[in-house]
Amino acid sequence: MDQLLKELSLIGGVAAVTLVSYLVMRRSGASGTANANRLLSGLLGAFLLLGGVAKFFLPFTDMFAQQIALSQLPFPALSAFAGQAGEITAGIILLGYFFGWQRLQGPISDLIFALTTLLIVIIMLVAVYVHLHPAVPAEVLPFQSKPPVLTVIIMALAILNGWLRRKTRLS
User: Fold this and answer.
1) Which of 44, 68, 101, 109 has the most beta carbons within 10 angstroms of its beta carbon?
2) CA gap 126, 53 in Å, rounded
3) Which long-range contacts (CB under 8 A, 24 or more apart) does 99-108 make?
4) How many Å apart are CA 32 and CA 3, to the nearest integer?
């Protein structure tokens, strides 16, 4: 129960920051699609960055190590590093798009955004595998729940964010 409260407070903090950001962002004069893309980038970026950084601290460090070990991912040390570094990197990039959305335009920026979206989808697919692996108990998973509900939601939001970016750039 204590773990659940920690995770819910993390998500609540991200939601509060996103709400304040949205209220400020509404005055930007951008289209609704661009604002939705920017807001979703900020939300996903904050969530991924906080999730990746949280893995440096107990009990998240131990839970993450157990997830990697029990799911029998290849090269456990590399898998753990790649997962954590991927979350932090994707989070920083998306927050960069949130804060610098007017300056980050053009084909290179679009490619980086698309690759970041792909990175998030890959990380979430691995997380789905870990959640569904029979040797991984619910106690070492986020929210201590076997169904990968949050993982699938994050993956869907990342895909939606990529689609919104593409739609904004084409219009």
Assistant:
1) 44
2) 18
3) 101/30, 101/34, 101/38, 101/41, 105/169
4) 37
Q: Provide φ and ψ at 104, rounded to 5°.
A: -95, 75
pLDDT tens digits, one per residue of 109-125: 889 999 999 999 999 99
pLDDT in tens, 42-72: 889 988 998 899 888 888 888 888 888 888 8
Note whether 15 and 152 are within 8 A (CB).
Answer: no
Q: Which residue's structure tokens are 């661009």? A: 34
Structure tokens at 15: 């939601």
Q: What's the pTM value of the predicted model, to 2 decimals?
A: 0.82
Structure tokens at 102: 């007017």
* Whole-number Å distance between alpha carbons of 63 and 138: 10
Cα–Cα dist 169/171, whole Å: 6
DSSP character for 105?
-
Helix H segments across the chain?
2-25, 32-54, 60-70, 76-99, 107-132, 149-170
Q: Identify which of 8, 24, 5, 10 has the alpha carbon closest to the alpha carbon of residue 99.
A: 24
Pairwise CA distance, residues 73 & 77, whole Å: 9
